[in-house]
Specification:
The chain is mainly β and 292 residues long. It starts with 7 loop residues before the first helix and ends with a strand. The N terminus is likely disordered. The protein is elongated, with a radius of gyration of 27 Å. It has 2 domains: 117 residues; 125 residues, no CATH class. β6 and β7 form a beta hairpin. The strands form 4 sheets. A 5-stranded mixed β-sheet has the order 3-4-1-9-8, with no helix packed on it. Helix content is 12%, strand content 48%.
């Protein structure tokens, strides 16, 4: 009985596609190995992009509790910081889709770039030069290219967070012979009477705390549990104002005329000529001093 291969014309493109993909990976490994043998060559690799969170008010670095960062199509763990993430770019493509999960929301980024093969030298051989970064946000976040050439320690892409308008700051104080001095309390845990996404710091030996206020109510109760299992209950009352400060953020709720009381502490509003102490700021400014 003779043998025939009627399906071969259909299998051939699939086989060749796999060969091409494997060959691309092999070429990349060879290039990286060649560069690793030459330290100066390794410094020429520019396939990383640095994404940083920024405050929309002044563009300064922001601190965000990041839960996870992923690239669509890849199952990898990337270097995370509380101000952003460092991600690799695939030289076989010209776009990647990034998912940033933080405690406030999920943000989507579409990052584009240009890839050009380039012969460097006989020692380094060829490499792929990445340039012309672009970024957009399908989730509607405010994003901007800060540096269009990947690689190095520069910040390449900024993700601008809208103001967090609900964090009141208290500082622990005590009266001493030389006047009012800083105090430290040992907090075991912190809780609020609503679902609060961010409380920081929430435990430890603390001289201050940033506490969340409920933007959907005119009062908030915070419970502090201390290391000896005793508790303190802090109550904040305030007014809510709806207005648009940044167009990209839309209408937001702002908190004014904050008042505080507690069952353990004497709460006193601080005095300052630099800011209105009964209003909320981002980053937070000290609103109240808590005396034991």
């Amino acid at each position: 009985m003779g043998l025939s291969f009627p399906a071969f014309p259909y299998l051939c493109p699939l086989f060749m596609n796999k060969v091409i993909k494997r060959a691309s990976v092999l070429v990349f490994c060879v290039l990286v190995a060649a560069c690793l043998e030459q330290p100066d060559c390794f410094n020429l690799i520019n396939n990383s992009v640095n994404i940083s969170y920024r405050k929309i008010a002044d563009g300064a670095l922001d601190t965000v509790a990041i839960e996870a960062v992923s690239i669509v199509g890849l199952d990898s763990v990337f270097a995370l910081r509380n101000t952003g993430a460092l991600l690799p770019l695939d030289f076989t493509k010209n776009t990647i889709s990034v998912v940033l999960d933080d405690v406030e929301r999920t943000r989507l980024l579409a990052i584009g770039y240009r890839v050009q093969p380039q012969f460097v030298s006989e020692e380094c051989g060829p490499r792929f030069q990445l340039s012309d970064l672009t970024v957009s946000s399908p989730s509607g976040d405010s994003v901007r290219v800060l540096s269009s050439t990947p690689g190095g320690n520069s910040a390449h892409i900024g993700v601008y967070r809208c103001p967090r308008n609900n964090m009141v700051r208290i500082a622990f104080k005590q009266n001493a012979s030389r006047g009012v001095i800083r105090d430290t309390v040992v907090v075991k845990s912190t809780s609020a009477d609503f679902q609060a996404f961010t409380i920081y710091p929430s435990a430890g030996s603390l001289s201050f705390m940033n506490l969340p206020l409920n933007s959907n109510a005119s009062s908030t109760r915070i419970t502090l549990q201390f290391s000896d299992n005793t508790e303190a209950k802090l109550t904040f009352t305030y007014n809510l104002v709806r207005k648009t400060v940044y167009q990209v953020c839309g209408e937001q709720t702002f908190i004014t005329n904050v008042r505080a009381s507690a069952d353990v502490f004497d709460m006193e509003m601080v005095e300052s000529s630099r800011y209105v102490t009964d209003s909320i700021y981002d980053p937070p400014k000290i609103n109240f001093a808590a005396f034991q």
